[in-house]
Amino acid sequence: MAELNSKKAIIILISVATVALNNTVNAQKLVFIFGHGLYASPLDQTFKDGYNKGLGVEGGAGIGWNKTFIMGTSGYSSFSSASGNGDGNITIIPLKAGIRQYLIGKLLYLHGDLGLASVKSKISSAQSKFSADFGAGVKFGGFELQLDYDGFSKSEPSGYASFIGLKAGFAIGL
User: Fold this and answer.
1) Which domains does the chain possess?
2) pTM to 2 decimals?
3) Beta-ladder partners of 168
4) What's the Cα-to-Cα distance from 24 to each of 4, 18, 20, 68, rounded to whole Å?
5) Could you give the angle at the alpha carbon of 95 between the alpha carbons of 94 and 100, nearest 5°?
6) pLDDT tens by residue, 94-124
7) Sequence-ordered list of residues with C-beta below 8 angstroms from that of 34, at least 6 positions apart, any chain
C-alpha cells in the first residue's frame, strides 16, 4: 500500500512539474515569426494624387527578451494608380530592421523599423529608397492588429511618400 501511494505521489509530482515547466517555457519565448496582410491609404498629397489604396503582405521575425524584441521585416505592397497617372501601379518591397517594445504584458506594443525598399512603377525600373515605419499594435494570443505610419523617400518631387497601413495577421512563438 505504501508503495502504491509513493508511485501516485511521484506521478502527481512529475505531472505538476511538467505543467509548471511547460508554462514557464511558453512564457519565455524568445523568438517569434509573423505574417500580416496590409491595407494602406496614401497620406501626403503628391502620393495621394497619383495613387489610390494599396494592398500587401509582410512577414518577419523577432528575437528578444522580456518585453523588447529586435525585428526583421520584409514584404510586398502594390498601390493602384489614379486615373491620369501614366506611371501605372507602384510596387514596394521593403527590407527593414527595428524594435518592438511591449507596454502592457504581451498585449500592447509600439514598434519602429528602418531600412531600404525597392520601389518600381510601370515606367521606371526598381530603385532602392530609404524606408521607415512606426506604429502600435495589440496582440490577442497569436492574432495581431497593427496601425502604422509607413513610407519611402522619393526624388520627383523630392520628399517622402507616406501612407497609413492597417495590418492584421498571426504571430507564432518558437
Assistant:
1) 2-173 (2.40.160.20)
2) 0.78
3) 37, 145
4) 30, 10, 6, 18
5) 105
6) 999 999 999 988 899 999 999 999 999 888 8
7) 59, 60, 61, 62, 144, 169, 170, 171, 172
